[in-house]
Amino acid sequence: MMTFYGLCEGRLVRLDHPMTFGPSALADVLWIDLLDPSKDEEKAVEALLSLQVPTRQEMAEIEESSRLYEDQGALVMTAVVIDGAGEGRPARAQVTFVLTKTHLVSVRYADPVPFRTFEAKCQRQPELHTSSDGILTSLLDSIVERAADVLELVAADLNEVSVRLFFDDDQPRRRPKRAEDELQVLIKRLGRKNMTMAILRESVLSLSRLIPFLRQGTTEWLADGGTQRLKQIERDLRSLSAYEGQLSSEIVYLHEATLGLINLAQNRIIKVFSIASVLFLPPTVVGTIYGMNFERMPELKWAFGYPFALVLMTLSAAAPYYWFKRKGWL
User: Are 259 and 187 in contact (CB under 8 A)?
Assistant: First the structure.
């Protein structure tokens, strides 16, 4: 899908889709947004701007030289944006920006939140979206704001996990099986948060490389105030990077703590079986001895032989139990 944006009474608005392409079609167009474009749409934009639009395979390349370069006076920049975090299924979305002095082209194969809410942002601050570089700066700012919102959601979720792990002692005692199942659910939950953080880390890294490249490439024609806005975005990215590192460390700690609690629960079960085997070992020995069928056994024809064997087995089981209790092993 191809969407055109241009200025109308000093505001960035969506334009009607032109039926034909030609030089006159660019008169009012400031931003061309390509969402999952077809081959024909890519060729049409390339013909209009005399530029090469990166393919989806080229956008997925991870080398910096493939993500940030100049093509015939236009800056071609690819960033990673997180998508689907609000729905619980975070995914990477590559977005490529082709910036010239007069036009901006965005190429994407996903519809992340910053793009869905950008039109409303343009209406609130129309003075910031009157040039191609101003629109790009606002888009980058929206992407950073969304990353910050996702980090806040992750932090809140990790706080809830911490409470469930370490402050649920006042809750009614749960059955071991149920407690173990809940811990396994928490591990999956932490795994999803770790995946979210990995995508955010990649997104922040790509933007941290994109901003200096953009400032360097637009030094001569950047709109008024654009440099300060880009510097502010760089400061925000540094703070997000530090906060992301803190949350990643917390995820690692909570994951290890959850595994530790599961191991403790399993060790308690093994401990019960081990103690039970030790307690029943002496009675088993006594029962085995008196179960032998030798002809000459002193207690074989003794009237009190059977009660004596039962009492001996009971005492042989009670003595280890008393010893374990005294040592604090039970």
Answer: yes
Gap between the Cα atoms of 175 and 38, Å rounded: 56
Domain boundaries, the chain: 2-265, 290-327
Helices (H) and strands (E) in the chain, counts: 9, 7
CB–CB of 93/109 below 8 Å?
yes
pTM for the complete prediction? 0.77
Give CA 24 to chain center in angstroms: 45
Map residue 42 onto helix, strand or coil: helix
Phi–psi pair at 216, nearest 5 degrees = -70, -40
Architecture label for domain 2-265: 2-Layer Sandwich (3.30)
Average pLDDT along the chain, 330 residues, taken 10 residues at a time: 82 69 64 88 83 85 86 88 85 90 90 87 80 88 92 91 77 59 85 91 92 86 80 92 92 89 79 78 81 75 80 84 74
Rg (CA), the chain: 34
